[in-house]
Structures are given as C-alpha cells and as structure tokens.
Write a structure and sequence with these properties.
With 350 residues, this protein is mostly helical. The protein is built from 12 helices and 6 strands. The chain has helices at 22-40, 45-69, 71-77, 104-109, 202-212, 218-225, 232-235, 248-258, 266-282, 287-290, 302-308, 331-334, and strands at 78-81, 84-87, 121-125, 128-131, 180-181, 342-343. The chain binds protoporphyrin IX containing FE (HEM). Protoporphyrin IX containing FE binds next to helix 5. Residues 331-350 have a biased composition (Low complexity).
Length: 350
C-alpha cells in the first residue's frame, strides 16, 4: 500500500515531510485508508474528513499528550466552557483566534524533542531490521520514493494492536534526552538538499536555527513561566558560550533527561501542551468546538484506529504456537534498548 504519487514518484501530500521516511509515509496511508473506510460506510467526503480528524485529535488529547507531557498537565489544561472544550493556557494566547500560529519556541525547540527519540534502525517486520538512513544502494527507510514491496510495515512492531499477540521486540522510541542517534548526524540528500556547505547534522541545524531566529534561552523561558530554572551544573554546561545559558532545544532535552527521559519536563511539556491544545481550541472545526462530546471509547488507541482503517497487514499477525513452551517474562525486553549508535549532540562545553 502506497501514497498516491505522480509520474515522477512524488507523493500527493499537503506536507511533503510526510513522505520523508517509509514509516511516516505508511502511517499516512493508514489515515487515507481510515478516510476510505468511512466512505465505504456511506459517509460523505466531508463527514469522512471530519471523522478522520476527530479520531486523530482525540488520540492526541487522550493518548499522545498524556504520554509526552503527563496526564496531569493535560487534565489541567483541557476545560469545558460555554458548551465547548477549550485550553486554559497561561502563555499561548493568540490575539486573533482566526489566525492562530505556531510559536518559534515550539517549532524550533520544544517540539524538536522528537529528534532524540529516533532510532538508528527499526524492525519493520519480524526479523527484518532496516537502518533509517543507509549508504547509497543499501536497503534503508529513506522516503520520497514509492514504498518498496518488501518494506511493508507490521504495525504490531510499533503499536499495541488489539487481539494480536505483541512481539517480544517491539521498536521502542529512544528516551527524550541529550543523546541523538548517529544517522541524524549525517542527513541524506533526501532530507537536506545537497547544496554547497549544507549542514547535514540535525543537532547543528536545530541549534543554529534557534540562534538565527533569536530564541530565548531555556533558563529565560523557565523564569518567564515561573519555573525554577535549571542551573548550568544541572544542565552539564561549563563554557561561556550562548551568554552562559542553554539553547532552548538543549534545555528542553536536558530537563526531560533529568526527569528520566520518558516525557518532557516543566518547560518543554508546557510549551507543547499549550500550543497543541490551544490550536485545537482555536479551530472551529476541531472536536473541541464542533463536537465536544466526541468519544470513540476510553480505551481507543492507535491500534484500534489501524484496525478501523483496515490497515493492519495480516502477514503481521503473530499466531502463538500452542505447542511452544510458556515464555519466561523478560524484564529487559520491556526496557528500551540502549542504542549503541548514540552520540552527544553537544559534545564539550557549550
Ligand atoms: C527520521 C526522523 C527525522 C528527521 C530526519 C528529521 C529532520 C528534520 C530536519 C532536517 C528539520 C529541519 C531542520 C532545520 O533546518 O531547521 C526538521 C525540523 C523539525 N522537526 Fe524533525 N526530523 C525527524 C523527526 C522528527 C520528530 C519525530 C519530530 C517531533 C516529534 C520532529 C520535529 C520537528 C520540528 C517541529 C521541526 C521544525 C519544523 C518547522 O519549523 O516547520 N522531527 N526535522
């Protein structure tokens, strides 16, 4: 199953970045198929579009955000008011609600937390592990091309699929911390156009982008939010660069790391939660406004959406062998695998 493409292989997408790698591209096809599943049920195009969005938005509020910023913050921010749901945001308050925007603190720092979660390789199906970026000619997960038949995704390796036995080695996201996998230090030409002097290290791009856009330092954002800023010793900084303060992206990663790396900390979590929920509140067509009672069921998760879309490839169904001995629980298999290819994005004092 592939994205619809033109004659040169370019996907028809609102945002070409959804074709940046074969995992994201195939996740996008899940949403296309969800839309088609609603159409097959007799919904109009507009109804199918709306239902796709509401299911996605509901998962962001009830599954994704609680994992990334913590359930307490989400619960505090989402409030019912005047018959709709809204965001009780202290900092993200677009003046013109019909023209909401994405603040640079979000796009250039806080939401780039995801760069530290990317693995060097992913098991796409049982026993088939593929690097995110390989050398030219080698098999890898680079996108911007038709999806090769043998690189179909077994979603059971990424999400809990109801009714399907989980594999013992599901791909775990890396921790949110100041380590970043090695392939992201040399981005391929499908990600960064190969112009003279192009910066191919993602960490360097993030830090320079923040500098060029004049982002405030992490400590300054913390202070403005009324959060006690981390000290340079806590941040692991010793040099005098960056006005002796931490770039916001680094700060967000470090505060998450100090909290265990499973979710964002006080500053990063607040920025991400307020912006995402604030945008939902500003969008008159979101379920917050158009259908605040929308509820696909409290246990609804991405795996349910994949099944609902008819997008679970039956080749991925792990059928337990009834003659096999009872597996012994292995606590190590539960923990994210340390990635040997991890490097510090900011080696040395900053
Ligand atoms: C293989 C995975 C990924 C690659 C190769 C990648 C690569 C990139 C690159 C090259 C940029 C532009 C950098 C610049 O020039 O400033 C970028 C921007 C960005 N990335 Fe990623 N990224 C990946 C995954 C993620 C994830 C998982 C997240 C969040 C969860 C994320 C969030 C962002 C954001 C918010 C921006 C800024 C977008 C904008 O300003 O429009 N990325 N990424």
């Amino acid at each position: 199953m592939d994205l619809p493409r033109d004659e040169v292989g370019a996907a028809y997408l609102g945002d070409p970045r959804n074709d940046e790698n074969l995992v994201v591209a195939q996740l996008h096809t899940v949403f296309l198929r969800l839309h088609n599943a609603f159409r097959d049920q007799g919904k109009t195009f507009a109804q199918a579009q709306k239902l796709c969005r509401w299911h996605y938005q509901w998962l962001i509020v009830h599954d994704f955000l609680p994992r990334i910023v913590g359930p307490d913050l989400v619960q505090r921010l989402v409030v019912a008011k005047d018959g709709v749901l809204t965001a009780d945001a202290a900092f993200y308050k677009p003046r013109n609600l019909s023209k909401p925007y994405i603040p640079v603190e979000y796009s250039v720092a806080a939401y780039r937390y995801g760069h530290s979660m990317i693995r060097a390789e992913y098991e796409v199906q049982d026993g088939h592990t593929v690097p995110i970026f390989g050398r030219d000619g080698d098999e890898d997960l680079r996108g911007n091309r038709p999806i090769p038949e043998n690189l179909w995704i077994d979603w059971n390796y990424f999400f809990d699929i109801p009714g399907v036995e989980p594999p013992d080695d599901r791909n775990m996201a890396r921790k949110i911390d100041t380590q970043i996998s090695l392939p992201l230090a040399t981005l391929p030409p499908t990600v960064v156009a190969p112009t003279a002097g192009a910066i191919v290290a993602l960490a360097e791009r993030n830090l320079l982008r923040g500098k060029r856009l004049g982002l405030p330092a992490g400590q300054d954002v913390a202070t403005a939010m009324g959060v006690a800023p981390l000290t340079n010793a806590q941040l692991g900084l010793s040099g005098g660069g960056w006005n002796k303060k931490a770039p916001l992206w680094y700060y967000v990663l470090k505060e998450a790391e100090l909290g265990g790396g499973n979710r964002l900390g006080a500053v990063g979590g607040r920025i991400v939660a307020e912006v995402v929920l604030g945008l939902l509140a500003a969008d008159k067509t979101s379920y917050f406004n158009a259908n605040p009672g929308f509820d696909p069921g409290s246990t609804f998760r991405v795996g349910d959406l994949i099944l609902m879309a008819g997008a679970f490839d039956e080749r991925g169904r792990v059928t337990p062998d009834p003659t096999a001995p009872e597996p012994v629980p292995n606590p190590v298999a539960e923990a994210p695998e340390p990635d040997p290819a991890a490097v510090d994005p900011l080696p040395g004092p900053v």
